[in-house]
Amino acid sequence: MPPYTGDPLRRPRRPLVPVAPGPEAVELSGPVFGPADVDPLDSDLTRQHAGEPLGERITVSGRIADRRGRPVRGQLVELWQANAAGRYANRLDRRRAPLDPNFTGAGRCLTDDEGRYHFTTIRPGPYPWPGREHTWRPAHLHFSLFGTAFTQRLVTQMYFPGDPLLRYDSIWHSAGDAAARDRLVAAYDPGLGVSGSTLGYRWDVVLDGPAATWAEEGR
């Protein structure tokens, strides 16, 4: 299996744009988020359209903490993913898999006073890796956490327990040792699910320190 060096299609083709230092630059170029900017429905990806999305409904919840285990409150957490057929609602994704008109695959929320986040969504499907014969990416969710400043943004991925495709995924292997890779895999938690509606998964994130959750380079 070749080492993961990043997808060439995702690499920038133009030089980076320099930003002048100082608070004004961050204020103008960085995002501005707060409780008024996040709608309660943003965290339920199954209720963002008039119809019902296809696929297995899941609840994903966890705790965001710093290296000392302290909760990170008011943290903006963003999630994006493929649909149940393994296709993203993105014009650049032209794979031969159906789009779901009732599923956009993007959501966000703010952590509560205990540092907890909560999403209701659809379990994404795996999809073939472009340019690699017989290689498929396991089901996964993309997460973005902004910290207390734009420069602290952490981008990572969450995987599902028992997925047979994990052992073949070079992105998962790039996370480091076995302990670091295990931290990217959610745990099935029946207590987080909604009876008769969703399966529950628990996935905690540590922002920094020796037990920090793996982050994608260059994000």
Question: What is shown here, in short?
Answer:
Keywords: Dioxygenase, Oxidoreductase. This protein is mainly beta and 219 residues long. It has helices at 23-29, 170-173, 178-182, and strands spanning 57-65, 76-80, 106-110, 116-122, 127-128, 136-137, 140-145, 154-159, 187-188, 199-202, 205-206.
How would you describe what is shown here?
There is one protein chain. The protein is globular, with a radius of gyration of 18 Å. The chain has one domain (30-206): Protocatechuate 3,4-Dioxygenase, subunit A, CATH 2.60.130. The chain has helices spanning 23-29, 170-173, 178-182, and strands spanning 57-65, 76-80, 106-110, 116-122, 127-128, 136-137, 140-145, 154-159, 187-188, 199-202, 205-206. The longest helix has 7 residues, at 23-29. Helix content is 7%, strand content 23%.
In terms of topology, how is this protein built?
Layout: H1 23-29, E1 57-65, E2 76-80, E3 106-110, E4 116-122, E5 127-128, E6 136-137, E7 140-145, E8 154-159, H2 170-173, H3 178-182, E9 187-188, E10 199-202, E11 205-206
Parallel strand pairs: 1-10, 1-11
Antiparallel strand pairs: 1-4, 2-3, 2-7, 5-6, 7-8, 9-10
Pfam families: Dioxygenase_C
Protein name: Protocatechuate 3,4-dioxygenase
Region (Disordered): 1-22
What features would you highlight for this structure?
single chain; 219 residues; mainly beta; Protocatechuate 3,4-Dioxygenase, subunit A; five-stranded mixed β-sheet; 3 helices; 11 strands
